[in-house]
Write a structure and sequence with these properties.
single chain, 9-stranded mixed beta sheet, 334 residues, UDP-N-acetylmuramoyl-L-alanine:D-glutamate ligase, globular, alpha/beta
């Protein structure tokens, strides 16, 4: 169990103050729920009787939603298609009171959708049976990139931090990343990045948040124990020219590596009997970045991100964490 320090308590109280920009791939997380009915006579497959559908903010949209859930002002910047999924994302942002000024609509582009088929009885735990991804083809059009650059230059003014949420759908082009670095240098803003496939492309950032599998793939070093994690992490930290590396380790917690400081291993908060890891990485990078922007030390920010991650994985589907939930998880008064 994570023990709250006076510094962490003070940071939680300030989480609603920073302005954070989230740049990246806006994704619609679609859930289709069905109750098992029978086995098909045509093939040995389970037939589900449809019960309900739910669409949630996913990818960079979920990262933005997590910042918003802490009470901070967030500005998501990204592209959606002129399609039903794009309209649903736009409506979800608006219903939650999140600005859509940074959202660009590109005609002919498909909004990324991750459809999860969930099976289970009404009184039973619903399990994911299969996932179907609908993805855009390639990077946004040059005119869309121009619009994203314009939105970034206009809306990132005064932001304390910029979160890059790269799911591999091409939104964060090299030109946009150079724009991010220029803005951050002039405003002394924090830049954090979570990239599923292209982390080495994002050199010179403040924070990178790979998981253990990504760390191993990027360094070619097996990460079987803490010593190996630290060795590989130090190598990646130098390669990225980053200040901080926060490695998520699943049931083994996190590892925090500071370029000019120590390596700290943080055990998992709560239980490893998790409900759903969907979107947990978005919660971790959002909490860590927001806490740093609110004046936390790296270890305080990592500890809060660890707690937030432990809370959100106990929720079904793509979820967020509030300041009240953080306080409750740490045994503090709400």
């Amino acid at each position: 169990m994570t023990v709250a320090t006076p510094g962490m308590r003070a940071v939680i109280d300030r989480l609603d103050r920073p302005v954070v920009v989230v740049l990246g791939d806006l994704i619609a997380d679609e859930y289709l729920f069905g109750k098992p009915a029978r086995i098909s006579r045509e093939a040995p497959v389970l037939i589900l009787r449809f019960s309900e559908r739910e669409v949630l903010l996913g990818g960079a949209a979920n990262a933005a939603h997590n910042v918003h859930a802490f009470g901070a002002r967030v500005v998501p910047i990204g592209v959606i298609g002129a399609d039903g999924a794009g309209e649903e994302l736009h409506a979800l942002f608006q219903s939650d009171g999140i600005s859509t000024d940074g959202v660009v609509v590109e005609r002919g582009r498909r909004t990324p959708v991750k459809t999860r088929i969930m099976a289970g009885g009404y009184q039973a735990t619903r399990q994911q049976v299969v996932r179907l991804d609908r993805e855009p083809a390639g990077e946004p059009q040059p005119t869309t990139e121009d619009a994203l650059v314009d939105r970034l230059n206009a809306l990132a003014v005064g932001a304390a931090a910029i979160v890059i949420s790269d799911y591999g759908y091409g939104t964060v082009t090299p030109r946009l990343f150079e724009c991010v670095k220029k803005i951050a240098r002039s405003a002394n803003a924090i830049v954090s990045v979570d990239s599923r496939y292209h982390l080495p492309r994002f050199g010179g950032v403040t924070v990178a948040t790979p998981n253990e599998a990504e760390l191993e793939q990027l360094t070619g070093v097996p990460v079987d124990d803490e010593r190996a994690v630290e060795k590989a992490g130090r190598h990646l930290l130098e390669r990225l020219d980053a200040r901080i590396l926060l490695i998520t380790r699943g049931s083994r917690g996190m590892a925090l590596l500071e370029r000019d400081g120590a390596t700290t291993f943080i055990p998992i908060h709560g239980t490893d009997e998790i409900a759903d890891v969907t979107g947990a990485g978005d919660t971790v990078i959002s909490t860590f970045t927001l806490a740093l922007a609110a004046g936390a030390t790296p270890i305080e920010a990592a500890s809060l991100a660890n707690v937030a991650g432990g809370v959100v994985v106990m929720k079904r589907g793509t979820g967020t964490v509030s300041r009240a939930e953080l306080r409750q998880a740490l045994g503090l008064d709400a």
